[in-house]
């Protein structure tokens, strides 16, 4: 009887795994289709330009990228670089949802695996598998990511919260709702600029951190990976391009460590801290900086050669 139950359970597990993989393939195709659609919309954007549509796209872009992705998904949820009141944490995470880079649990899981396995065969998006894989192709290969990294068992802190489970189950409805709202409010100009233009710019800005910032740029810190500071991506991605800084001090709420390194989310965090809304804000100490300084590391090597 025990053997029979074991066989039944094994068949059930295989069936669930098969259905789960088919579901992932379906969503990979949906993502591919949506990316193609947003780039088609980008081609038509000049013909549907209005200043109202432009300002709608810019406003949504600020809410969803430097606040939603960089401040919330990345620094707050992935690395716990600072604390926010739950109401504000949830609001900012909701902004991030509308950047259409996945729900908070998906994004955080992938990013934590990136740091755990950075620039190895198990990294979800490293240029060691090719520049275009790290830039965009990885987005459509989630079965492959499962095989490399495993399932999302690195986000138990988020899985315990009903809000993030709710966003995972319903995220597509929220995106469709925003698209419908934009169309009703301003027709095709608002839809194309508020969705296609905004998302295409945001996607490639974020993707460039994975690809460009692990390929070209400067390495002021002695990290065991390919991360680099790239000022162009630093500008385009609102401060996320100071990627070698980030990999040296991944706990830090501040990525632009020099005064001239633009870092808009950091300025917002400082404002929130001043208002008493952001607490336990983490930044690297001078001792920690000296430990990872490439200049000091090179001087040490030259002294001992």
TrEMBL record:
Membrane-topology annotation of the record: Multi-pass membrane protein
GO terms, molecular function: oxidoreductase activity, acting on paired donors, with oxidation of a pair of donors resulting in the reduction of molecular oxygen to two molecules of water
Transmembrane segments: 55-73, 172-193
Keywords noted in UniProt: Fatty acid biosynthesis, Fatty acid metabolism, Iron, Lipid biosynthesis, Lipid metabolism, Membrane, Oxidoreductase, Transmembrane, Transmembrane helix
Annotated Fatty acid desaturase domain residues: 50-263
Keyword Lipid metabolism carried by entry: yes
Compartment annotation: Membrane
Entry's free-text remark on domains: The histidine box domains are involved in binding the catalytic metal ions.
Name of the protein in its database record: Fatty acid desaturase domain-containing protein
Originating organism: Papaver nudicaule (Iceland poppy)
